[in-house]
Each structure stands twice: as C-alpha cells, then as structure tokens.
Amino acid sequence: MWLSMEAVYIFLGIVVTLGSVWTFADRSNPKRFTSGLFYLLYGVTLLFGSVIPPFYTGVLVLIMVAIVGFGGLKLGKYEEASPEERQQHRQRLNNRLFIPALLIPILTVIGVTWLKNVKIGGAFLLDPNNVTLVSLGVATFMALLISMAMTRSTPFAAVKESRRLLETIGWAALLPQMLATLGTIFTTAGVGAAVSEWIGTIIPTHSLFWIVVAYCVGMALFTMIMGNAFAAFPVMTAGIAVPLLIQQFGVDANHVAALGMFSGYCGTLMTPMAANFNIVPAALLDLRDQHHVIRVQVPTALILLAFNIAAMYVVTLMD
Amino acid sequence: MVLIGVAIVIVGFIIRINPLLVVTLSGLATGLFAHQSLYEIIEQFGKAFTTNRYMAVFIATLPVIGLLERFGLREQAEHVVSNIKAATTGRILTAYLVIREAAAAAGLTSLGGHAQMVRPLVAPMAEGAAEAKYGTLPDRVRDDIRAHAAAVDNIGLFFGEDVFIAIGAILLMKGFFDQNGIPSDPLHMALWAIPTAVAALIVHSFRLHRLDRSLHKLLHRENGKGRA
C-alpha cells in the first residue's frame, strides 16, 4: 500500500520530536532538560516503535513515567500571539479561517467513503485495515499545507504551535496508550476471569430481573475498570449473559448485545480510565479539574444505564 | 490476588495521584502477582505501547489547529456565533449533538473529535453564545461550558455509532457470538441500538436545555448588564 499507518506515526513522531527541540531551548521552563527529554522520547517511540525491540520501548516508557513522577515535566513559554495580533489576522482572514479546520473532517470522510478500495499500480492507496486513521492523517496533513499557505507560515511555526497544544496536554497525552497497555496486562493476568467469577457468585440466578441488572451494571462497572467497553463485553457476556440470559431464559442474543454494549458505554462516560475521551479533552480545554468532563457526563450516563436495564428487561419478557 | 491492580487503580484515582503513575504501578503489580518476570512485564509495556500508538493520532491535528488558533480561529468562532440572536450555549451544543450522533449513526465517526472540532470550534461557539448574552464569564462557568462541549462529542459518538452495522462494536459482538456458536445478526443488533440512541438524544438535549436555564439564572443576576 502507498500510505500505511506507519506513515501517520512518522508524521506524529516528527511533530513531537521537532517540538522537543524548542522545549530543550526554552529557558523559561524550570525543567527544560527533563521536559525536553520527555517529548523527545515520546517522539522516538512514535517514530521507531515498530523497529525498537519491545523491551527497550518499555524502558523508554518507564523513563517517561519516571520524569512525570519526579515532577520533571513543566510548562514553558510559547510566544503566543497577543489578542491584538489575533484580532488583526482574524479581520483579514475572516471566515476563511474555518476552511482548513472543516477540511479535516470533510477530507477524512471522503477518504473513508471513496478512497477505501482505490488501488494505484496494484497496491492500495490507503491502508485497508486502518482507513479511518490513515484518512485522518492525510486530511490533517493537507489541511496543514492549506493553512500554511493561507497564513503564510513556515512548517516550523506550525510545529511551534503544536508544541504549545501538546504541552498543555502534557502527561495526559501518554495516558490512553498506557491504559491500553494496562488492559493488555490485566487480560494476560486473568483479571477479567476473576471479576466475572466473583460477580457470578453474588447474583441470584433464578430472577430474570436481577440477572439483567447484574449484566448491565456489570458491563458499566467493568468498563469503568478497564476503560473500554470492548474489553468488558466478552468477559461479562461469557460470564453472565450467555449462561443465564441466552441459554437459561432463551433471550435473543441481538437484544443482549446492543443494550449490553451501550451499558458499557455508560461506564465509559464515567471513568478516568477512558482517558482519551475524558482526561485528554479536559487537558486540551484547559479545565482546572481533570475530572470535569466526567462530572458533566455522569447524570446522562446513569439515566441511560437505567434506560438500558429497563429496555432489556422488557425485551427479555417478550422473548 | 490478580485484583490488586484493580484496587491500585481505584484507590489511586480516588486519592488523585497522577494517573500515569497509578497505571504504571498497577501494571507492574498485576504482572508481578501473576508471576511474570520484570523483563516480561517491561516487554509487555513496550509492546502494547507500540501497538496502541493509534491512540496518539489526535497529535496529527495539533499543527493545523495550533496555527489556525494563532491566526484567531477561536475568536472567529465566538464572533460568528455572537451575531446569531437565537444562539444559546445549550442550543449550539444540542445542534452539535444531533450532527455528531446522526453522522456516527451513518458510519461517519470521524466527523468530530476533541482536538479538531471541540477545542477550536464547538467550545468557543458555546462560550461565545453565553458571552454575547451575559458578558465576560466567570472561570468556573467557562470550565463548565467547555466540559459540556467535550461531553456532547462523547455522547453523540458513543450512542450513534452502534446504530451503524459495520462499526467495530457490532463486528466485535458478532465475532464473539460466532465463536460461542450463538446465532446473531448485525442488522438486528444495530436495530436494537436505536431506542437507546434516541433516548440519549432526548435525555442529553433536555440537560442542555437545563444548562441554558441555569446559565441564565446564574449570570443574568450576577452581571445584570446582559444584552438579552
């Protein structure tokens, strides 16, 4: 294929690694060497992740975590444009500023829908296994070129701005990857099996209503622990839904699946373990409380969890 | 004993130790209690970290968004909204919720996102609408509006995407049932996702409506000088 996921990672790696050069040189940052090192190492894992032996990547990861743990990651100065400057530019560029921003989703969608199976010279244009992500990467790259032309900026100016944003996110940028890692370790260590066994011992197996409650709440809770409904679904469904709902009470698997997965999503809305949805945005939006997004989501999540339980119970009665 | 890692995570998050540390410690502890060697655990860290690089893909959007912000994108988004009389924080977020959820239901899950849509466009619009009515916002109100903007992106995505047959979640469930020899049908799974998807839209729109009311109550009194 012409454009693989690896190409996107190289783009990410270049952005992060180049940015770290300014961090090393940023005298206003009290910890500029350790902060610079953090972003340099992160860039290296993105650039060369598939080449470096896993053990050494693991060591790099632990060094990054240690830098954060010992307070070595600090903010610097980012020479932001003053409000007056932004005002001037804005009046000149006006609504044209929206064009590159809106091109990102539009081009991504075009890539996903129309370039999905396009082949050039017998090879796929976009990695068929990662069409969405590769499309997103290409879309942002094209939007970047357009916005550089529009604002007459250099690539370095763009990297400096991305450094400003990335450093506002800071350690949270690493968290989604680390949580996915933890998920893998939990799975190999058998945490899922232990949890579903424990839940199996506490629910009354003769009451359809309480089985439904246990399954839906279990999906939500286990998703909160794992940070991912996809990890919770096989465990909870094999532990509760298959033996009790589907086999014992003869409930339709399609109903169980749709409503069970949504119960898991309610859990996703309530957990810091789903960092890419809940913690990274809080950092990205400069919120003072890193759990603010979760706090806002909890009421909706609980109401919908109750809705799922009720809907599943009603549907199982009809089956 | 393998549950020690779960306990570490829960306690760590409750007493608010840096999540990155909590997660690393939990991983190390879980591995050690499962009788893995330190070398194996570190190797797993490295391997999974590399496999999950796709989670970092939001970084690709930062150069464009950063550059556009330098040239006033967020201010422009606020400005555009402040000229629309009927625009309120809640209505803007409701409109985005509808678009996000409908697009996700049609399989267009990439039409949105915190880095590319919420930070540069949706949040400034939601804030701009409130500012046009009530003047400068107190920090806690500004935070609240931004958190709501992020939440709308999540809720629209989550409860929309399962309505689409070819989405990862549906395929995962289908695969699971196939493995266990239980008949299932992606079309029916997607169909049975619709009631919850509609409920999510109604429940959250109602909450956004209430957000408008509470903003009005809070800020109308505080600032007094509102234009509305």
TrEMBL record, chain A:
The keyword Transmembrane applies. The keyword Membrane applies. This is DUF979 domain-containing protein. The chain crosses the membrane at residues 6-25, 37-53, 97-115, 131-150, 171-195, 201-222, 229-250, 262-284, 296-315. It comes from the Bacteria. Keywords: Membrane, Transmembrane, Transmembrane helix.
UniProtKB/TrEMBL annotation, chain B:
The keyword 4Fe-4S does not apply. The chain crosses the membrane at residues 7-34, 54-73, 155-177, 189-208. Pfam families: DUF969 (PF06149). Keywords: Membrane, Transmembrane, Transmembrane helix. This is DUF969 domain-containing protein.
